[in-house]
Amino acid sequence: MTDRNRIVVIGAGHNGLVCAAYLARAGRQVLVLEAAPQVGGAAVTRELAKGFRVSGCAHVCYQLDSGIARELALASHGLKWAREGLKTVALAGAGEHLVLDGSRAESPALPDADQKAYADYHARMRRFARVLGKQHHRIPPRIGGGGRSDMMTAAALGLDIRRLGRDSMREFLRIAGINIFDVLEELFESPLLKGALAFDAVLGTNLGPRSNNSVLALLHRLSGDAQGSLSLPEGGMGSVSEALAAAARAAGATIRVNSPVARITMEGDRVSGVELEDGEIVPAGTVVSNADPAQTLLRLLGPRHLETGFVHRVRHIRSKGMAAKLHLALEAMPTIARLGPDLAGERLLIAPDPGYIEQAFDAAKYGQCSPEPALEIMFPSVYDKTLAPAGKHVLSAIVLYAPFDPRASDAPARQQMLDGALAVLERAAPGIRRQVIASELLLPADIEREFRITGGHWHHGELALDQMLMLRPVPGAAQYAMPVNGLWLCGAGCHPGGGVIGAAGRNAANAVLAQEKAA
Amino acid sequence: MSIVDDMNRKEHFRTAVWPTPFHPRTSALNTLNEWHRWKDYTTADAFFDEALEYAAIRNACAAFDLTPMTKHRITGPDAQAFLNRLVTRDVARIKPGRVGYCVWCDDNGQVIDDGTIFHLREGDYRLCSQERQLDWLSRSAHGFDIRMIEDTHEIAALALQGPTSCAVLKAIGCTGAEKMKPFDIAYFPFAGGELMVSRTGFTGDLGYELWIDPPRALALWDALFEKGANHGIRPMGTHALEVARIEAGFIQAQVDFLPADQAIMLDRSRSPFELDLGRLVDFSKPNFNGRRALLAEKKRGSRFRFVRLDVEGNKPARSAYIYNRPKNGEVVGTVTSAEWSPSAKANIAFASMHMPWGRPGDELYAEIYYQRELRWSRVMARCRVVEGAFWDPPRKRATPALDF
């Protein structure tokens, strides 16, 4: 094999590993270069304190593609589930909590009309999400390209929408671009129910419940074949990555950690490989980057190898994260007010109503840490004993919202966010503060630094109408091939986006192989 | 508060259209009082007689105020790399002291504008453009270590074109100007400052462009007209220049092509190949704006062909459709510029043809409408595709420049 035949994958995030595995299975010589000391990117398990481990960024699986899991035999490569089908508990400030379990919304305080409306909503949103889910495995069409397969893919999307039936199609088209707040107002009475459902639509985005595109963000969340059903991998999210890495290695790929890429090298108008930060040159005829588009194109490759219009579009991908991540090591399992221990290991939300979330969003929109953040709280150690010493626990929470560019500098902002989150937690679980052995809060800027994601946005770019499907990452480059010969993207910045799906990695591998065949 | 003060303070809202630094002289000479707006400036259409102004270009020399032309100064370590990514030709081949004609494209390989790159001194460039380009240039600057300003207002510029132009330059003290080759730049002391001279122009003839700081503009004008009196110097307006430009075969943005950033319909913009500027596209450069699209066009074939036409008769074929048969033909092209050429003694035109039309020898007809005593008539005039410019005298290139 010559260097020209080598394929370098930059980054061993889940999509990079999936891509490497599929390319290696097709007989290609694949080398994955990961900057961090471990594989996984944002799907990693890290030590918080001695004996306490926690999922570092993503902390629950709800979109992992079952086809990929099957084809890559992730179970035989060590992936086990500590718990599947987690319920969601919306914590009430006072009064009865609300439990969402599949299509059922249960609470003694919930009006009957809301229960019925929730079952309808649950089914309808999943039906709409399936339209998006069907696109996951298709390479988005080239608009104006006029190619036969592009026309077919575009037509297939139209047909998928049409097949919803007349009324559903109208409803889908009516709500797809609007905000979740208005949709929930139409359907439900209970503020707690509306709060919980609004939370899912804005989680991990740069959107408040009243921002348009929030319905679409929700549909994306529900779009995998798990339909939004939540699962905890045993050993944390890092286990998913370890299994993917094992699958890639078994297929013949080589994975090197501690190997940060400094730049993509060019020879004439084609990629010639990469140069590592320590100066090592790794020649390769094809480079597939799992890094986000801005990082890959502007930092690793550089604008001078690209054209002006393209650089302009890449520079303006909206990719500022607004979610902070909180990790606590706890002396004991805290007691949550009015919640039985049987539900303590489920997914707990503090989002009492949509207005509460919107106000938290407003603060961050103007550069402040939300003083009263909304929270998604998990105690993964309840179902997964590998994460904490016996009797002790870890908490992993997503805290909304944290500004990417806080008005205050990072250190005070981090403290403010931590104080705010702990104050909100303390109200829900009195005494929790005294149980904290170690704590850690990651602002979007920390996520950017630690996980090398421009803007600290989990999805490598906002999931919105203008940044999805054939417009992701930017119009004219949504087919994984970048406008530089031999350079490809395979990460969440591409269709279908973030959420630990793996589809971007597989689609990119297919695109690389298809081009080889065409050449 | 004078208009010039508004201009200096960039208070554009007070004065929408500015006088150029030459205005005190050009306005005095403009006996026709015919003006139009060119970018931000008021510019003479004609001064005393279009035909005589044109005659001065070809038989003596004529001065044209080109201050309104958009100018940019680009310096810094990446200046050359920036320009090389911007334009289609290889800027490294434009040595210090030289000027190069160039076009630049968008990512789709469609021409945004044409202009000239002046390599003033090592690593120090001036880019002149027909259209305002700061937005595109600023976008293009991302990732390059350059300094760029638009300095249109900081430089007074004058074109001196025609066979006696070199003699006039020498007479005002530009000693050795005759040694300049076409596209050379030279600097001469003038009125206690520096006069930059380039052997460039828009007339396809012996001629120069003169660049000076605005406070010395009137001294320059006065010197030229004093020393040039015996060499037949005249002021010229845009109408006379227009005839000379078409004779010389030079295209113009907004006339012969629509800048790609202004085109909405997909078939309204043109690639360099479609403007007969393929010679300016250098694929040996690994990257420039439009390269991938132009490579694809090269493979797939262009949609349009730019041609120069010799049209039968003496009616300028302005905006005429071109047909492939005198009767019942189909439209195969459109005229973009047309004039009667006094020097070539020919009825000349530029046209944008649909492929494959416009090959030498193609039988083509321009549908010309003309008015005589308020009655419209129509003629289908036979056209012949001409290769090269209509006017290309040896004195344009002769070095040392000839004395007339």
Structure commentary:
- The complex is a heterodimer of chains A (519) and B (404).
- With 519 residues, chain A is an alpha/beta fold.
- Chain A contains 15 helices and 20 strands.
- Chain A has helices at residues 14-25, 66-71, 112-135, 148-162, 166-175, 180-187, 191-202, 214-221, 238-250, 293-301, 308-315, 354-365, 410-428, 444-451, 503-518; strands at residues 6-10, 29-33, 45-49, 52-55, 81-84, 88-90, 98-101, 104-106, 231-233, 254-256, 261-267, 270-276, 281-283, 286-289, 323-330, 347-350, 374-378, 393-400, 436-442, 487-489.
- In chain A, the strands form five sheets. Chain A has an eight-stranded mixed beta sheet, sandwiched between helices. A five-stranded parallel beta sheet of chain A has the order 10-2-1-14-20. In chain A, strands 11-12-13 form a three-stranded antiparallel beta sheet, with helices on one face.
- In chain A, α1 runs parallel beside α9 and α7 (191-202) runs parallel beside α12 (354-365).
- The longest helix of chain A is centred in the N-terminal third of the chain and has 24 residues, at 112-135.
- The mean pLDDT of chain A is 95.
- Chain B has 404 residues and is of the alpha+beta class.
- In chain B, a hairpin with an 8-residue loop joins β11 and β12 (207-212).
- In chain B, strands 10-11-12-9-3-13 form a six-stranded mixed beta sheet, with helices on both faces. In chain B, strands 14-17-16-15-18-19 form a six-stranded antiparallel β-barrel.
- Chain B is 19% helix and 32% strand.
- The N and C termini of chain B lie far apart (45 Å).
- In chain B, α3 (50-59) crosses α8 (238-248).
- The chains are: A alpha/beta (519), B alpha+beta (404).
